[in-house]
Amino acid sequence: MANRTYEELQPQSDWVRESGSNTLIIDLQGFKKEQLKVQLDNIGNLKISGERPVTDNRWARFRKDFRIPENSNLNEIRAKFEKGTLYVIIPKTITQTLPPLQRSPPPTPTQQKPAQQEETEKKTNEEREQEQKPKPQPSPEAARKVPSGKEEMGPMPPPPSGKAAKGGVMQGLMRKKPNQLLVNVLVSFAVVVGIGIYAAYKFKAATGTGERNQD
């Protein structure tokens, strides 16, 4: 059997990218389905090759490697050959997209009040309650006190009548007489002492004058 000679081919290829899949299209005119091989290696490369006879021992062949796009479903890759064109359909991985979170609108002032506003309103209500409470009235004993802190004198007792009045006046005079008598005694004593001092002085002066005259 004679050795084969090969002619290397470079078939044209193109990608068709859609929302649900990517499709590789290769123009392989003159080839048959059984003359083609579509393989996928363990690192995500797509290897497509084929060979066909031309004349006698001359053959035409090709080999092309393609990188599988990301987010591809490798278990669902399929190929079909129609009218000299190879279609390799690579579905995309379906990623479940979660709907956006529905954010509730912020509470209105009537729904929720700030803590500071609630505390202020609470203090205002307490102040109003304190103002509405009746103020305590001063007791009669407190009303009798003067602002300076001294107590007011109570009402004067009524003057005694008849003998009781006279007895009271006499008792008052008798209480005053000892005091007046003591004063009178002291004054008389002072006068006597003064007279005695004066007389002694005069006597001494007269005695001294007589002695000088005799000399």
Provide a descriptive summary of the structure in words.
By secondary structure, this protein is an alpha+beta fold. Helices cover 34% and strands 25% of the residues. It has helices at residues 115-132, 140-143, 163-214; strands spanning 5-8, 13-17, 21-27, 36-40, 45-55, 58-67, 78-82, 85-91. Residues 97-168 are annotated as: Disordered.
- Average pLDDT works out at 75
Taken from the alpha-carbon principal axes, the silhouette is rod-shaped
Order of helices and strands: EEEEEEEEHHH
Could you say which structural class the secondary elements and strand pairing correspond to? Answer: alpha+beta
- State the end-to-end CA separation: 207 Å
Task: Find the count of extended strands (DSSP E, 2+ residues).
Answer: 8
Oligomer description: single chain
Main β sheet profile: 4 strands, mixed
pLDDT < 50 runs, ≥5 residues: 146-154
Tell me what portion of residues adopts beta-strand conformation: 25-35%
Measured as a percent range, the helix fraction is 25-40%
Instruction: Please work out how many helical segments DSSP would assign.
Output: 3
Query: What's the gyration radius in Å?
Result: 71 Å
Spatial strand arrangement across the major sheet? 1-6-5-4
